[in-house]
Amino acid sequence: MKFTAFITSLLFLGSAAFAPGAGNARSSTALSAEKGATSRIEFLQRSAALAASLTLLPGQANAAKYGGFGAGSPEVIDPKDAIVDSDILKSDSVQSAIKSVRGYKQSVLDMKSSLASDNQADIGPKIRKDFDFSIVRTDLNSINAALDEDTQRGTDRIVRAILQDITELEVTQKQKPGVARSETRLGNVIRKLDKLEKSFDDYLAFAN
After folding, report:
1. Calpha distance 132→96 (Å, rounded)
2. Buried b / exposed e across 39-54, counting CB within 10 Å, b at 16+?
């Protein structure tokens, strides 16, 4: 009798996990992250929830990736095929944003250099100083304004990837006080920096 009750409870939990409400909750979380939180803390919280759902749903995780141009997402087109409004691209606001994004990429290179010199270097303060979330998002969106709508559907994905990369980098590099960074953790931090560098490169390719 107890065994039957146990099986029944498992079936109930299994059906609840696949109920429409669960899918809607994940969709709502993903949509909120895409539209962007108003602060770094909110984005970190929502990203953590999204990461948990993607761990359970590998199909969704793969769909969120892009690589090469169009290799992982048909929405991300090759920059040479992009339609760019040259007048908007030449505007002071967009040129300033391009300069800032190049600065973000240089910051990534600086952090990689710091870790190459000292694998225990604390790059957390530099991440928080150089990557003010709202400013980074504004700069990326300013460049996006010079692109046509079809191109923007792809570059929007890169913008979201960059914001996610920054979030993941900040989380990955954290160390407990008094605990040395292991080679495994160092490798994870370097991979996050490499990924962020590529994301900036991919985005800047649309502004050349």
Report:
1. 16
2. ebeebeebbebbeebb
**pTM recorded for the entire structure:** 0.65
Q: Answer for the pair 127, 166: CB distance below 8 angstroms, yes or no.
A: yes
- Give the span between the Cα atoms of 79 and 84, in whole angstroms: 10
Q: Which residues of the chain have pLDDT under 50?
A: 1-38, 48, 50-72
pLDDT of residue 134: 94
Q: Say how far apart CA 186 and CA 165 lie, in whole Å.
A: 16
Enumerate the β-bridge partners of residue 147: 84
* 74 contacts 153 by C-beta, under 8 angstroms: no
Q: How far is CA 93 from CA 51, 99, 138, in A?
A: 34, 10, 11
Whole-number pLDDT of residue 21: 46
Q: How far is CA 137 from CA 28, 53, 64, in A?
A: 21, 24, 19
Q: Can you tell me whether residue 71 is helix, strand or coil?
A: coil
Q: Are 170 and 127 in contact (CB under 8 A)?
A: yes
Q: Which residues contact 136 (CB under 8 A, 6 or more apart)?
A: 104, 162, 163, 166
- The letter for the amino acid at 122 is D
Length of the chain: 208
pLDDT of amino acid 76 = 73
